[in-house]
Amino acid sequence: MKSYRKEFMIHTKERYAIVRITDRVEEALRESGIREGLCLVNPMHITASVFINDDERGLHSDFLAWLEKIAPYDRNGYRHNTGEDNADAHLKRAIMGREAVVAVTDGRLDFGTWEQIFYGEFDGRRDKRVLMKIIGE
Ligand code: ZN
Predict the structure, then answer these.
(1) What is the count of structural domains for the chain?
(2) Where are the beta strands (DSSP E) in the chain?
(3) CATH of the domain at 32
(4) What is the pTM of this model?
(5) Could you read off the pLDDT of 91-119 as tens digits, one per residue?
(6) Distance from the CA of 31 to the center of ligand 1, in angstroms?
(7) What is the rounded distance in angstroms from the CA atom of residue 66 to the CA atom of residue 49?
(8) What is the pLDDT of residues 25-70, one digit of tens each?
(9) The domain containing residue 127 runs over which residues?
């Protein structure tokens, strides 16, 4: 079994952002040479998510508006916010999940028709790392 590990950086200008990262993952898969296996993608941070959904701008703003209703930004409204203000980002990440795992078949990410991989940023404006780990043969 082969194993391939790669990281890349993301730095969003906004505090909240949804960034399509499918191309970065496909690039890593090509570099790995792996044809059959599994590909894991996760942020190395607890205020960001990696998830799979539709590449549609309206839906992305719906996601962010929905998250803001469930876990609104509130500098003084959370017990975590002593010296920092990102409690909402931890909660948003918990809702959107930590990682995505995609099957690798015949050297390609084996997606459903509309599936794309996204990085969800909930406490941006700084460098964040994303990890890809691909195993198989
Ligand atoms: Zn925090």
Answers:
(1) 1
(2) 2-10, 17-20, 37-43, 48-53, 100-105, 108-109, 116-121, 128-136
(3) 2.60.120.460
(4) 0.96
(5) 999 999 999 999 999 999 999 999 999 99
(6) 34
(7) 15
(8) 999 999 999 999 999 999 999 999 999 999 999 999 999 999 999 9
(9) 2-136
Residue with tokens 């191309």: 23
CB 89 within 8 A of CB 24: no
**C-alpha distance from residue 112 to each of 28, 59, 115 (Å):** 20, 17, 5
CA pair distance 59, 64, nearest whole angstrom? 9
Distance from the alpha carbon of residue 94 to the mean position of ligand 1, in angstroms: 13
Residue with tokens 């993301």: 10
Rounded Cα distance between 92 and 111, Å, is 25
Give distance in angstroms: CA of 91 to centre of ligand 1: 10
Helices 87-96 and 57-70: crossing angle in degrees, nearest 10, is: 120
Q: Which helix (H) or strand (E) covers residue 23, if one does?
A: helix 22-32
- Residues near ion ligand 1 (CB < 5 Å) are 84, 86
